[in-house]
Amino acid sequence: MRLALIALLVPDYDEALRFFVEGLGWTCTADIDQGRKRWVTVRPPGGGADVLLARAAGEQARGIGDQFAGRVGLFLHTDDFTRDSARIRTAGGTFAEDPRMEGYGTVAVWTDPCGNRWDLIEPA
Hints:
124 residues, 2,3-Dihydroxybiphenyl 1,2-Dioxygenase, domain 1, 2 domains, 4-stranded mixed β-sheet, 9 strands
């Protein structure tokens, strides 16, 4: 087995695609019209599991930005913290703290435009 997809609630497919693809440089791996919804997936340049951009409907909208109950729920590794933190900021992400050194590497918490909390980590 391998983890293939992680669903991320978003308010709008196209806004999310702009952030991840145009802003962060990820690849759109699928954008399939299914009538009332689309199957939209993106993948970071270094690989890993794809992210399914799931447009929230009805009551699901309450979960946008809070899928992990206020905790960091998504973790990106980088080989260049400075480069990728700048790219995240330019794309519309907001860092909640300055980078800090931990035993596992350099890390900082940031939020995407939907309010999801991520760690950007440059492993030691």
